[in-house]
Amino acid sequence: MLNYPAPLHRNAKVFDLLYSHRKTRVVQLTPLLRALHEAEKEYRLHCGQGQFTYATSVKTPVALANGEMTALYNEHLRGKNGREFYDEVINDDQGLPKLCSYCGERAAEQADHYKEKSKYPLLAVFPANLVPSCGACNWNLRGAKNKFHPYFDDIGSSKWLTAEIIWDGSFNPPGLRFFVPADFVGDTALAKRVSDTFKDAKLSRRWSSEISRMVAQAHRYFLSTTSIRARENHLEDMRTSHLETPAGPHQAVIDAMLCSAWIQDLPASL
Ligand SMILES: [Zn+2]
Fold first, then answer.
1. Among the three residues 140, 170, 190, which one is the final residue of a domain in this structure?
2. Which of 54, 64, 82, 161 has a 20 to 30 Å separation from 228 between CA atoms?
3. How many structural domains are present in the chain?
4. Residue pair 56/35 in contact by the 8 Å Cβ criterion
5. Which tens digit of pLDDT belongs to each residue from 203-219?
6. 248 CA distance to ligand 1 centroid (A)?
7. Which of 254, 244, 263, 161 is nearest to 203 (CA)?
8. How far away, in angstroms, is 140 Cα from ligand 1 center?
């Protein structure tokens, strides 16, 4: 999981810009803008205090037609009128895709509504409620109750992901499992959010086939030499070929392989 600075644009301002492109508009805009401002204030206040599951007390003005916010999001924020806001969420300063804030591994292709737009329509086009996400994380995390928040949680460079090598002492390649250590960070609520996001995004299952191939490749190499130094060097070479964040799955597995009984005790088959 990865932190990013929250986009700074104001909710009402973004709405106003997008709404100016709509053909049918309400006459009294002021109550609408006030509600959007209140929704932003409530969001920032609760998220700033780590209360991510709050229920909103801001009423959606009746003047706002059903589906209007979704239309604004789909047709305008992702269309050319508001694209700069959308791109700022998913791309870095160079215009290249950020890494997904949930898996920290794939490129962000989409913006995930941290607070769902169906239940929080007033936050549908609010950039600080839009999180860079890959398609798989966005899909798997729909409806998730306790998500990591890349703008308000502070995970820093914590090693939130750990892998364990499971070797039965035979010549067969070992198995592995991923987990989020309960105490990887002092904040237990944050640790639980990361752990729940890890499970809900199905990260372990999504990574397993690719990472198993990497383990099998290391296994084949290990069978060719009993030199621990040579085996360690081989793994370090693998590490440099997988440039990702320090808490990425490849790094976690390489760390686990380096301190496993398997790297020490697997006999060479030659
Ligand atoms: Zn992802």
1. 140
2. 161
3. 2
4. no
5. 999 998 889 999 999 99
6. 11
7. 161
8. 9
